[in-house]
Amino acid sequence: MRETSARARLFMAALSVLVGLFLLIAAPWIAQVSLERVIAALLEVIQDRPQFESGIKLFTFFYPLWRALGFVAGVALLAGALPMARGEEWTYPVALVATAMPAIGGMFMFLPYISWVGGFPLPMVISWVGLAGFWGVLLLRKSDWKEKAVKFAVFTFLGMLATHSFTLGIGSQRMLATRPLKPLYDGLEWWILTVVGEVDWIATVMLIVAIPLLALRKRSGWWLAMIASLSVFLVDAPTQIVRTKTFDYLYGAILAAASLLFLMLPSFKRTLVGEHEPELPEG
């Protein structure tokens, strides 16, 4: 961070403060209002489509969870603002993963608005603020235009893949909760949901952990992102073949394939992690 100019570090610190305050003050209110709108809309929807009833419990749990993650992320951004202005290296990966939380969580909370909630999609404000902080921290750090472009593409796609994978996990749990013949599984199209949902959730965690590690140019971060992306591709692609009523799994497979491509391109890999990490001395 010290190679980044003092002015750029000051901008990054100010951005961290603004995003942090938003996550502590405004985002909790936005999440609560959005949750109540989603639940109210669902209560009407399930009168004609009872298979969506499970969404009430899922959203009641996961909206507050992402709100809590955003709150802690806001605290982290505020705590790291002054050290960031001083150029302390640890603040860079922390700021990236902290701003990724509202970007991912806000996008997840927005998705019900596509299907059954009317009005302005308030959760997108949370996602936009998170993205502004994420991209700001990423691009303000000193590097040449090529490195900025590579990191912008890779980190953005990893965030998109994490968001989509988490959402697919929610969808799997929603459908399993109201499946025919429950507690039995009526064929492949139902028990495959017990695979794709959990795999996508595990991949989401791995992708989030990979972000700060890649920010530090750690090969462990590259491998985590690779394994997570490959896992999503290998589970979403066959699920799309089995469950053809939606293209959501196809979109997940495409995002995973794009992430794999970016990670595996030799020039991109060199930019992300260098040629190799120095070996530890023996003894």
Structural description of this entry:
The structure is a single chain. By secondary structure, the protein is mostly helical. The chain has helices at 6-45, 54-86, 91-110, 112-115, 123-140, 145-177, 188-191, 193-215, 219-242, 248-264, 266-273. The chain folds into two domains: 1-142, no CATH class; 144-276, no CATH class. It contains eleven helices and no strands.
Structure annotation, total helices:
11
Describe the main β-sheet briefly: none
* Residue fraction in strands: under 5%
Q: How many distinct beta strands?
A: 0
Cα-atom Rg, whole angstroms? 20 Å
Sketch the topology as an H/E string, one letter per element.
HHHHHHHHHHH
Number of domains: 2
Distance between the termini: 31 Å
Helix content: over 70%
The general outline is globular
The chain-level structural class is mainly alpha
Query: What value does the average pLDDT take?
Result: 91
Low-pLDDT stretches are none
